[in-house]
Amino acid sequence: MTLVTTLPAAPPQSGAGPRPEARPQSEARRCTCWPGATVWLTGLPSAGKTTIAEELAGRLRRDHRRVEVLDGDQIRKFLSADLGFSRDDRNTNVQRIGMVCSVRDVKGLYAKQAAGEISGLTGVDDPYEAPEAPDLRIESHTQSVRESASALYALLTERGLA
């Protein structure tokens, strides 16, 4: 089972989004950037999270959308190679991932946490908990990868994000 949570992206910064010439002409005249979102796939190991993410990313890229997939296995290989799978090591891994995504820290929360000014920042010093009411629940054991990615794409489209 894979749980999906979508979060609105931070407000666009100057230069954000694909170049207007990368979009269809009619779209290029209407807006200067695409809306964004973070799609967080959670679930048990080998539930198909990465495979579904890559399928969705391919579809979004064909629509000229900018996409980055942060895969837990790849991050562990390069960012957290020294860690195992104990609770403490998993928490450290999540903290490191949070620090990599904190590059766009528009509110300065990660910087304040690092300086000891605030605490309780989710994913840094507060444990992550699976969502009780995700935006979408994918039954990856009964759906094909294409069906799962299509459900995600439909959710993003419904919210004006695809």
Structural write-up:
- With 162 residues, this protein is an alpha+beta fold.
- 38% of the residues lie in helices and 10% in strands.
- The protein has helices at 25-30, 49-62, 72-78, 87-101, 109-114, 145-158; strands at residues 2-8, 37-43, 136-138.
- Strands 2-1-3 form a three-stranded antiparallel β-sheet.
- The longest helix is centred in the middle third of the chain and has 15 residues, at 87-101.
- The relative contact order is 0.20.
List keywords for this structure.
alpha+beta; 3-stranded antiparallel β-sheet; 162 residues
- Overall shape: it is globular
- Order the strands across the largest sheet as they lie in space: 2-1-3
Main structural class: alpha+beta
List the uncertain runs.
Answer: 7-21
Query: Roughly what percent helix?
Result: 25-40%
**Main sheet summary:** 3 strands, antiparallel
Output the radius of gyration. 17 Å
Q: Helical element count?
A: 6
Order of helices and strands: EHEHHHHEH
Would you report the number of β strands?
3
Q: What distance lies between the first and last C-alpha atoms, to the nearest angstrom? A: 24 Å
Q: Roughly what is the average pLDDT, rounded to an integer?
A: 76
Beta strand %: 5-15%
Short description:
The protein has 162 residues and is an alpha+beta fold. It is built from 6 helices and 3 strands.
Question: How are the SSEs placed, and which strands pair?
Answer:
Elements: E1 2-8, H1 25-30, E2 37-43, H2 49-62, H3 72-78, H4 87-101, H5 109-114, E3 136-138, H6 145-158
Antiparallel strand pairs: 1-2, 1-3
